[in-house]
Amino acid sequence: MKKLILGLLPILLLTLTSCANQQLSRGTQGAGIGAAGGAIIGQAIGRNTEATLIGAAVGTMLGYIVGNEMDKYDKRELNQTYEFGPSGQTTSWQNPDSGNSYQVTPQPAYIPPQNPNTFCRRAEILATIDGKTQKTYTTACRNSMGQWELQN
User: Fold this and answer.
1) Which pLDDT score, from 0 to 100, does residue 19 have?
2) β partners of residue 124
C-alpha cells in the first residue's frame, strides 16, 4: 500500500503543477499543492496510510488558506481604488506574491436606476497575468456593508 501511495504522489504533483498553469484561483492552487505536500510529510512521519491521509487533509486546508490570502491582496487594492481613486486617473499595483500587475482607471460614481439606494462605479482594468496583458471593463457597487462588489 505504501509503495502504491508513494508511486502515485509524483503523478499527483505533476497533475497539480499542470493545473496550476490554468486559470485556477490561488486558493485552489494552494489547496492542491498543500494536499500533496501534506501527504508526503504525513507518510514520512507516520509511515502508514492514515498518517498520509491526515497529512493530505491538513495540507489541503493550510494550502487553501495561504493561497486565498494572496488573492485578498488584489481584492483589497481594487476596493481601495474604487473607494479613493479619482475618476479618470489610473491606479497601479503589483502583487508581491504572484507578480501580477494591474492598472485600474475608475469612472465617476453613479446611482443605478434599478437600485436607487446604492452607488456604483465602472472601471477599466488592464491586468498583466503570467506575462499576458488583458483589458476588461468592470462595474462595482457598494453592498450593504459599504464594500465594493464586482457585478456580473
Assistant:
1) 44
2) 105, 137
Residues 65 and 26 grouped into a single domain: yes
SS3 assignment, position 10 = helix
Strands 120-129 and 101-106: antiparallel
pLDDT value at residue 92: 96
User: What letter would DSSP give residue 68?
Assistant: H
Instruction: Using 50 as the pLDDT threshold, list the residues of the chain that sit under it.
Output: 1-23, 62, 65-70
Q: Are residues 7 and 67 in the same domain?
A: yes
Containing structural domain, residue 140: 87-150
DSSP of 95-147, one letter per residue? -TTT--EEEEEE---B--TT-TT--EEEEEEEEEETTEEEEEEEEEEE-TTS-
pLDDT at residue number 65: 44
Q: Are residues 62 and 10 in the same domain?
A: yes
Do 62 and 95 reside in the same domain of the chain? Answer: no
**Of 13, 40, 71, which one is at a domain's C-terminal end?**
71
Amino acid symbol at 53? L
Q: Which residue has the cell 509503495?
A: 3
